[in-house]
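#structure-requests
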Amino acid sequence: MLYLLALLIGVIAGLRAMTAPAAVAWGAYLGWLPVAGTWASFMGHWAAVGIFTILAIVELITDQLPSTPSRKVPQQFGARIVLGALTGAVIGAAGGATVICLIAGIIGAVIGTLGGAEVRGRLAAAFGKDLPAALIEDVVAIVGALLIVAAVA
């Protein structure tokens, strides 16, 4: 079950790069993810919560702009993979399966990045503009991340 949750948080990182670490940081801060005493304990610190939350909000705002770069460009794609790996590993640290969950997070990030770009393109074409598709993606990412973190608890 933990591996599936790590894969799913990786998918969220592929959809919304900063939403996944923000949700994981909040989960660790609230005690839902038992990472105290592990290498991932920094995620439960108020500073990590604040930084990732601010970055997630900035990403949600800037992603609505027409000048937002594609998530498939190497820098965007690489960042999403790194964040998928980080969030998957933190979920794994909560259950003692860091390496396997790190790999699951990477796989999930690739799936979320490539699949999310495809779905968003189709939704944008169906709506005739990108904003409704971006908002749907935001809701799916935020709700999904919160459900995943709550499921680990």
